[in-house]
Amino acid sequence: MIRPKHILAFVIALVLTSFLSLNAQAKPLSADAVVERSSVFVGEPFIFQIQVSGSENPEKPDLSEITDFIVEYHGGQVNTSRSVTIINGQMTQNVKQGYIFSYQLVPKRTGKLLLPSVTVHADGQRVQTNPVVIHAQKPSETEDFKLRLYLSKQECYVGEPVTLTVTWYLGQDVRKFSISLPLIEQKDLFYFFDPQVDFNSGKKFYRIPLGDGEVVGEKGRGRLGDKEFATITFKKVLIPKQAGLVNITPATLVCEALTGYRQRRQRPFGKDFFNDDFFGLGRQGVYQKVIVPSNTVNLKVYDVPAKGQPANFAGHIGEYKIQAQATPTQISVGDPITLTLTLSGPDYLEQVDLPPLDRQAQLNRNFKIPRERAVGEASGKIKVFTQTIRPLKPDIKEIPSIELSYFDTRAGEYRTARTGPIPIQVKAARVVTALDAEGAAVSNLSGSEIETWTKGIAYNYEDMSVIENHGFGPVSWLKSPVRFCMIVIPPMVYLILWVGLFFISRQNADPFASRARKAYGRLTSSIKKAQRTESGQQSYQVILNAFRKYLGDKLRFPHGSLTFNDVKDSLSTKGVDSETLENLKSLFQRCEARRFAGNSDMSNASSLVEQSIILAKNLENTLK
Q1: Degrees (nearest 5) of the Cα angle 609, 612, 615?
Q2: Are strands 425-427 and 330-332 parallel, antiparallel or unpaired?
Q3: Which CATH fold topology does 145-302 show?
């Protein structure tokens, strides 16, 4: 039988748990800056983390003062650990709140580079991270790997598209490659576009992470000097925003190159998507990291000439044509006319604006033109703008020709494209008088008159058959939903509390046993969730954390940062066979390596999930 003191103990336990959590949140805030390694090559990506302690929801730090590196945010995650200690029947809960911000940094130059202190704000507190020094070395190309940049032209005008081609020459098999192109961070100098790729050409393509996006690389073959290479090539279209000499910083390639072979071992986690089969060798290789720089190229950008520039020139570069349509064409003064202007010209018209209609003298004289300019929709070499205009006076016969002045880079001179005039009919606006607002005379209302009820207040009468026996007893109580709930609910609540206290007492006696029983279910659920993550890197992280928690619950270890070496002896003692141990070791090595591999890993995430489930079953069969 549950006594009141048991219920009181249960409530006190809940209050103490909440109190412990509040104490954990009140701990002082601190933040540490951590790097994957302090010695890197220019163009080589590495992981930079800001590890916050004392809060689960800090504000995202401002890294704008980090100027010697390309900074790419890789997201954040809560890093809170909880533990319960029971000594002589007394339960102590320890909560360490934390959060980790992850970034990928790429050095832009050689030398001793400083990552300055970063300010972190959380829960009304403010702290500084420690500064970190990075030693950036200059990479060098090898005989087997070369990276080249090519420009479609060495000189151009502001607003004129230029194609940058990046070609990687490969003389050996590779895997896990990434390319850093610092140029794409210079968004104040260029607009950037990706050319269209024909995926139906029968060629082989690879999606290559680049900056905060990706590009499509085409596999082929090419010759450089007197040597034949396999190649991967991608292109970027640059449209300069300002004049001057632009020194394009070299790109950098980071890959793992084949250095030899060893006998293939049947491991479920030993195969990558982009590795031994690049040249169809079909053997398992030994790989070594290689970092290769590209050449440097320069682009001279000119301003369009001021001499001969038309007054209505709005920065259109290249050869253009313009067409116009209007609807409706029969209107009154002040009525709206939808004017559709279609520009056709060079590729990549996304940044091109509508010609300024208020500079069209005749159009501006006869029509009201809104100050807002239409945005337009671009499709290939065509961009369509829709603008509303209103006639200002009657008897206007046409919408005049609209001029578009442009600078023809081939001819080196300004030219003008024109639309044809559009005939319209404009009538004077009709004046609405008071007579227009008058309606027809209202006819007399007809209907029945209200009559007085002379019989007084009328009652509704019913016979004696409606009188029922409403006896009050236990049966009637059960028929009433309200009384039924009042009778049944209190015992049910009492029973639920008793069952809850019973299970709580069992868990308090051995809390780790309950975790161990549920460990396998949580592991398989987490592995399946890894299939729905946004990137391969996140899949590896989810699976690694899932196995750490599973092994920690089964072996009664803290699981926050478990390694294979931490659990190897315990698993062997419990009878886990050597093959399963070897597969688990391989899993830890691969997942821990992918934490710092960015988006460069091209492994098959779904295959990794299937292999993880097999490994989980083998472990559970031994440890259950």
Answers
A1: 155
A2: parallel
A3: Immunoglobulin-like (2.60.40)
Instruction: Report residue 462 as tokens.
Output: 């019913």
Q: Where are the domains of the chain?
A: 4-137, 145-302, 321-427, 511-623
The predicted model scores a pTM of 0.54
The CATH fold assigned to 321-427 is Immunoglobulin-like (2.60.40)
The rounded Cα 499 to chain-centroid distance in angstroms is 45
Find residue 387's DSSP bridge partners.
Answer: 339
Q: Are residues 261 and 180 in contact, defined by beta-carbon separation less than 8 angstroms?
A: no
pLDDT given at position 80: 85
Single out the residue of 167, 161, 183 nearest to residue 250, CA to CA: 183
145-302 and 321-427: same fold?
Answer: yes
Q: Max alpha carbon distance in the chain (Å)?
A: 121
- Structure letter (DSSP) for residue 458: P
User: Is the Cα torsion angle 205, 208, 214, 218 positive or negative in sign?
Assistant: negative
**CATH number at 4-137:** 2.60.40.10
Measure Cα distances from 585 to 547, 550, 581, 590, 591 in Å: 11, 15, 6, 9, 10
Tokens 């440097």 belong to residue:
296
CA distance 352 to 320: 11
- Strands of 69-78's sheet in order across: 30-35, 46-53, 98-107, 69-78
Interatomic CA distance for residues 45 and 106, integer angstroms: 5
**Whole-angstrom distance, CA of residue 296 vs CA of residue 249:** 6
Task: Choose among 289, 294, 254, 234: nearest CA to 45.
Answer: 254
User: Which two three-digit tokens encode residue 280?
Assistant: 């169809």
The CB density around residue 550, as the number of other CB atoms within 10 Å, is: 26
> Which tens digit of pLDDT belongs to each residue from 437-456?
444 444 444 444 444 444 44
Q: How many residues does the chain have?
A: 624
Distance from C-alpha of 25 to C-alpha of 28, rounded to nearest angstrom: 8
Cα 192 to Cα 184: distance, rounded to the nearest angstrom: 7
Query: Considering the chain, what is the average pLDDT of its residues?
Result: 80
The answer to whether 579 and 270 are in contact (CB under 8 A) is: no
Q: 243: helix, coil or strand?
A: coil
Give the pLDDT confidence score for residue 21 in this predicted structure. Answer: 44
Q: What are phi and psi of 313, to 5 degrees?
A: -70, 130
The tokens describing 263, both together, are 């006998």
Q: Are 560 and 51 in contact (CB under 8 A)?
A: no
Q: Which of 37-41, 514-518, 542-546, 602-606 has the lowest mean pLDDT?
A: 602-606
The DSSP bridge pattern shows strands 190-193 and 377-379 to be: unpaired
Q: 3-state DSSP call for residue 75?
A: strand
